[in-house]
Amino acid sequence: MISIIIASANKNLLNDVSVNIRETIGVEYEIISFDNAGAAKGICEVYNKGIQAARYNLICFMHEDICIKTSNWGFIVQDCFDTRPELGLLGIAGGRYKTLFPCSWYIGSEKSDRYQLLQHFKHQTVAAKVDFNNPNNEKLSMVSSIDGVWFCTRREVLNEVRFDELLLKGFHGYDLDFSLNVGKKWDIGVTFDVLLEHFSEGKYDREWVKSILLVHKKWNETLPKQAGNDFDKQECAALEQKAFETLMYAMAEAGYLKVQMRKVLWNSKLPGILGWKRYFKMHCFISALRVQAV
To answer: Which residues form the Streptomycin biosynthesis protein StrF domain (predicted)?
Structure first.
């Protein structure tokens, strides 16, 4: 039995995904949806209200612009949690290494990133594609953070962990923050037994930057974090470099000033991981960026 919580911005999409859930889940379920078409409430607040209303022990949070392609996926979710009492969070995409430098779970690394979905693009003129990375051919891969498009957890976890609606008022960063909170006590996994189709991609806009910076300020003392502890010093440095470049490009595109970018770099404590020579080159990288006028 699974409670499904959805923050809805589009009635048609909500209807479509509700039909899809009914046809594929295979177990008893309930859908708890909230009309948030005007974006009056942040997703953390909506999800916390959903938790209060949920009746079942397993709770699934999902976006409405998806279509689940796997039959009887509810049994798969139940089995993951029933056979692994240490599992606290289950997603379909996530990262094994969470960088010290502010960024999402995704870094663009075969060794760190784990995902399987059919991805469409709304903000780019790019053809839909199968996004898949599972280098160890695992059914369940342990990660340190997951993507918010679809994820499940247990009532036991939610009795101790909620979404930080005081910190995050919008629609970004909640998945990373929730992952880091759950990961203090429980394992986090990405399943490759559930396939879904996602009809829009993430967007690294100004609100995303703002949220990511807030989350990293909150968790700065506990990062970096990795699942498995199999990343050597050189690999960690390369991943931090990727995260740095991703955020700097996003900040430049969003119209942030270079002095603001340098402040983020200065506060990141990266010299301890990368060394001062590479740290100096990062400042040169910022100097060469072209900042978008807003």
So the answer is: 4-184
